[in-house]
Each structure stands twice: as C-alpha cells, then as structure tokens.
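Quick one, tokens below. Sequence please?
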C-alpha cells in the first residue's frame, strides 16, 4: 500500500527572543509564576518584515534542503495557520509563490493548535488517493499579532514560528512496521467555542480581534481529549504506549503534557518538550518540536512517533507515524 513517508524536516523562528523577564517589564507577571504554571521561559516574536508566510517559506526551504529536493519535486502545499498574512488568498499560495513554484496546488487548513495534525491527515489522504506524490506540510503562526498585550493571562503563553515536513508517497507492505503515517484520528466539538477564540473576524466585527481564553476550562478538557485520540490511534494499529519511541505533543503547557503522558503511562523521557523555549506556537508547535528532536538525533528513522494536539473550537487529533 502507499504510505506518506517523512522525507525531510525544517523550522524557522523570528529573530527576536522575548523572555519572561522581558515580560515582567510589560505586564504584572513574574518569571516564577509563568514557569510554575506553564513551563515557558521564553518565546520568539515576529518583527518587521517577518510574517506567517515568510516564516513558513523559510521552514519549507529548510525541509526541502533536508530532503534533498527542490520546489519542482513538490505537487501539494498545505499550511496550517490561524494567523494568515491575508484573509485571502491562502498563505499556502503565498508560500508557493515565494518558493518559485507555479504548478501543483496549495491551500490552508484552520484548526488552530490542532492545525498541523489536521494538515498531516489531509496530506496523507491526498497522497494515498494518488492526487499528490510529494507534499509540503507546514505549520506557521504569528500569534503575537492577535494577542492583547495587556492581558497577562494570555500574552505570556504564545509565540511565533514555523515548521515543515516533506511527505512522499512510498510503497510499503501494509504492516504496522511500515514507515510513514499509519493512522490519524481527528475530533471537534464546536460547543466549546467560547472557551478559546478570537473576538474578531471579517464577517462579524470587520477587525482581526484578540485572542480570548478561559484557561482553567481549556486545561480541564485537555488531558481527557488528548488521551482519547491517542488511544484511538493505538486501537487502530494494534500498538500500545510501550511501542512508542516518542510522543510529540502540542506545546501548550508543560502541566498538560505531563498529565497526558502520565495518564497514558508514557515516561517523560519519551516525550519531546520544547514549550520552555518556543512557548505555544499553535499550529507551528508540533513541526517545530519534530525539527528540534530530529535535528539533534533523538528521533531516528524507524522510530514510532505519536503526534497529538488540542486547539480552539475545540479541535483535537492524533497522527501515528513511523519516522
């Protein structure tokens, strides 16, 4: 059968680093408070000329270089983002143009922090269906542009960045030992909208708006929802937590990551954590974490890797793949 196999990875971060101590000068908060409740120590903030598309294109170029490919080898680009450069066209076609690519097709996916998982599952469907041979899957965000910098409960959490994977159609035996995406599990429940949303939009206020969040409510639902889709992936493939080499979660909050791992019986030594240096980069967090762990040699070819995320909506999902 055809599997979507990871061929390359890449990442891009803005130049400016904003530490917790920097934030102490802007809002009534402290490094100790932020670290204790979230595990975040710093985040990257986009500056002038740095946008979701520019960061996404930089991550895409890095992933192509890592794969030993060029834009001519790609026939699909999917960008997961909640902070597009424009309402339209899609940031994906902006990135397509920046790469000098004039063939294939490109579009955005909007599932907030779960966006990269949704994009991976979507690319997998196109690849297995024969509509694409190689896909660039990108998570890119500039959440700093939708933050209320006077709201100390949210502005300390988020950062900017981009990560990308190249997926390639590869014939595999059809076993759980196959390389590539083995299964995906996606969920959503719109009744939770008011717990995490942006209070603006073209059709409602005609403005971009700011991020609003009921932190305790999000935390309350997160661990249960995350474990639900991870267990679904195990059941679909006949695998267990013991078979996993790495869990790469959405980097929202270290306490949520630790709570999910504990509930599933996954030791923290098998969990990739980058929330301390990146903050919550929404759809960019998983590909940034993957690029970090694959780049430093932790994630190796043949490793069984679980991706999971939960985001506004609520949306949540998992992807199980063999690297």
């Amino acid at each position: 059968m055809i599997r979507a196999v990871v061929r390359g990875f890449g990442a891009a971060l803005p130049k400016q680093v904003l530490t917790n101590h920097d934030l102490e000068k802007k809002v009534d908060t402290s490094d100790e408070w932020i670290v204790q409740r979230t595990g975040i120590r710093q985040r990257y903030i986009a500056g002038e000329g740095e946008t979701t598309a520019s960061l996404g294109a930089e991550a895409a170029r890095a992933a192509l270089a890592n794969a030993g490919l060029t834009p001519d080898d790609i026939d699909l680009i999917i960008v997961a983002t909640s902070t597009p450069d424009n309402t339209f066209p899609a940031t994906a076609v902006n990135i397509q143009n920046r790469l000098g690519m004039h063939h294939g097709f490109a579009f955005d996916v909007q599932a907030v922090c779960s966006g990269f998982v949704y994009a991976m599952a979507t690319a997998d469907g196109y690849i297995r269906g024969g509509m694409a041979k190689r896909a660039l899957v990108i998570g890119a965000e500039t959440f700093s542009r939708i933050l209320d910098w006077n709201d100390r409960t949210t502005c300390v959490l988020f950062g900017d960045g981009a990560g990308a994977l190249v997926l390639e159609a590869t014939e595999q035996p059809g076993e759980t030992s196959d390389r590539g995406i083995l299964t995906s599990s996606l969920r959503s429940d719109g009744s939770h909208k008011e717990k995490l949303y942006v209070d603006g939009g073209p059709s409602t206020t005609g403005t971009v708006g700011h991020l609003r969040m009921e932190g305790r409510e999000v935390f309350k639902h997160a661990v249960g929802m995350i474990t639900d889709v991870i267990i679904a992936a195990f059941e679909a493939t006949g695998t267990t937590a013991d078979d996993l080499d790495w869990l790469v979660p959405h980097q929202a909050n270290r306490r949520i990551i630790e709570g999910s791992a504990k509930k599933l019986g996954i030791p923290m030594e098998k969990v990739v954590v980058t929330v301390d240096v990146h903050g919550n980069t929404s759809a960019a967090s998983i590909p940034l974490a993957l690029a970090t762990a694959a780049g430093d040699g932790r994630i190796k070819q043949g490793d069984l890797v679980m991706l999971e995320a939960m985001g506004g909506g609520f949306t949540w999902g998992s992807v199980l793949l063999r690297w």
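The chain is about 30% helix and 25% strand. The mean pLDDT is 98.
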